[in-house]
Amino acid sequence: MARNKETINMNSEFLRKLISELAIELNKKSKKTPVEHHLYIVGGAALVLGYNLRFATSDMDAVWSNQDYFRNCINKVAKRNKLNNGWCNMDVVLSKSYTPAITDEVNCHLAMRQGSLNVWVINLWLALCMKFIAFRERDRNDIKLIIDELRKDNIVNKDTVMAAFNDYYTKYDRDITLSEAATTYINSLI
Asked: Residues 120, 154, 147, CA angle at the centre, nearest 5°?
């Protein structure tokens, strides 16, 4: 696993180490005023940390509250591990695949708890919807991995995927904008 500032590949073990260090930093700051912190992990990091569907990820896309407080702690972990400050980021909030469903704990499972930090990972149906909306070249393999995993216990077809979009976007008043290629892919699901 590389730890330079240009390229990083974080496997599950390294992600857990970084999150543990983040929890320690957050706990230091919240000793004066006890606060429970929540970190909601999405994207490739969710597939690595929550489901072991990928070996590694280059960053950890997440959502958290109290942005300045978290950001200071993330930057301390970055410096200690010689990572860029973007190793853990909230870029997803600015993306077209963002939905408030990410921080609704009924759509997540608790992956870790350390001190005052609760680490949540989005469920696979929500991850699938987000990947379809983004539908970048790098998302296509993740989509296949997610569908294969979901099909172990679920029917995955056009109707179930569209129902998931309703659950995670329409119910949260979010518009769904799918590319023609993503729509074609969904329509091909049997």
From this structure: 70
Q: Are residues 16 and 61 in the same domain?
A: yes
> What's the domain range around 22?
10-123
Q: Which residues pair with 63 in a beta bridge?
A: 40
Please tell me whether residues 90 and 162 are part of one structural domain. Answer: no
Given 104, 123, 142, the domain boundary residue is: 123
Q: Determine the residue type at 37.
A: H
Which SS3 state, helix, strand or coil, does residue 39 take? Answer: strand
pLDDT of residue 7: 60
Where is the domain boundary, 91, 123, 155?
A: 123
* Inside any domain, residue 4: no
Q: What are the tens digits of pLDDT across the range 5-53?
A: 456 799 999 999 999 999 999 988 767 777 889 999 999 999 999 999 9
What is the rounded distance in angstroms from the CA atom of residue 12 to the CA atom of residue 60? Answer: 11
What whole-number distance in Å separates Cα of residue 97 and Cα of residue 182? 13
Question: Are residues 59 and 144 both part of a single domain?
Answer: no
Is 3 part of a structural domain of the chain? no
* Triad 49, 25, 110: Cα angle to 5°: 30
Q: DSSP characters for 104-167?
A: -GGGEEEEEEETTEEEEEE-HHHHHHHHHHH--HHHHHHHHHHHHHHTTTS--SHHHHHHHHHH
